Amino acid sequence: MAKIPHRLTLTEDQMPTQWYNMRADMKSLPDPMLNPATMKPIKKEDLYPIFCEELAAQEMDDRTAFFDIPGEVLDIYKMYRPSPLTRAYDLERYLDTPAHIYFKFEGNNTSGSHKLNSAVPQAYYAKKQGLKGLTTETGAGQWGTALAEACAFFHIPLTVFMVKGSYEQKPYRREIIRTFGADVVASPSDTTEVGRAILAANPGTSGSLGCAISEAIEKATKNAGYRYVLGSVLNQVVLHQSIIGLEAKIAMDMIDEYPDIVIGCAGGGSNLAGLIAPFMRDKLRGEKNPYFIAVEPASCPSMTRGRYAYDFCDTGKVTPLAKMYTLGSGFIPSPNHAGGLRYHGMSPILSKLYHDGYLDEARSYEQSKVFEAAVTFAKVETILPAPESSHAIRCAMDEAIKCRETGEAKTILFGLTGTGYFDMAAYQSYNDGTMTDYIPTDEDLAPGFASLPKVSGIQE
Ligand SMILES: *Cc1c(COP(=O)(O)O)cnc(C)c1O
Predict the structure, then answer these.
(1) Among 9, 232, 244, 420, which is least packed, fewest CB within 10 Å?
(2) pLDDT, tens digit, 9 for 90 and up, residues 116-128
(3) Whose CA is closest to atom 5 on ligand 1?
């Protein structure tokens, strides 16, 4: 067989034209979202005040395996996709491993991450429904940037509630969002009732994703013609992100490779779910048995130390309840450097797959180990990785080192979700040797668990 090229990029004609919905092949489905007022499963219509109709339909659809990607969405995808699948020859050589290491790189667009894959369809469906505007939250800033890009394209006004810590630490990220025409508000803010309440209870807070979500939802539900959009966790986002895995699978088929191990970092779970989607399909259908690993920060260990329980998706407790791995919506993670992985919960689809053993393993790393891998990767593969993505790099390197020890030539695929240009304060602290690792004790986690809602008959 010919030598496998360093970078495999599909042609536009080879790109997938449908998204894949893992729920259609799951033998046991995620538990339904509950309406917090009635504790009954929500209906599609219950979601209309929050989400636009087409997205509410995608959110609730457990049956349709493949959804056509609208032509307008595909046209924008083609401005920055297909994304390359790279064989990490130099990393393999550096690690002296017989493993074949591949990564799917999603950082080749201005938002610098995979988030644009869902921002584009969410803005598109909002436009199609004739909405007046959108609201959202952003933590590290990648989602806010991606959505601002997509809203600029479709001429939709956007307000972004940005976690205050990031708003202050990442002025240039904030400025890109403004350049695309969106308003940026530091959260918690005094522009919403929930923000004022959080500020009153906790005046010095640097905010959290959960707070920012509550504020964005309040603004959307109080303004006619506005809807809220979220960049992770939701079933619709997982669906859109399947483009990552579908492209990766087509490219790997072309070179007769199939991953033994698939690895992704997990914040709300969307990139990991998207990357594994077509491979999980094979596993759910009993055709193949790849090993899936979710990687999270030791400072925000939703899967490795969280509970599988019904919880709110936000701190202000205004969202429906979702059954997921969670640290409790009251959990405010320590300010580690991987802002995109600081979420208390996890995609209900991934949570269910993990609970049922289809997602094989969740693993956590302290940030100094993650940055050590990031710096190695930057030197040998010439890409400056995002701190979030570097969790997957760390894990892939460790798996490749195991292969060196056992002599097994496993095929490893990991998701390189984005670039780290706005994370130079984090790199600086690593380079200066001042980076510290924070691992919460069980006592630190207790208040978050105590904040879990009681759902009678289901969860006391
Ligand atoms: C947001 C983000 C993540 C985590 O989000 P998921 O929904 O878990 O994929 C990971 N990497 C980057 C670069 C991000 O921006």
Answers:
(1) 9
(2) 999 999 999 999 9
(3) 267
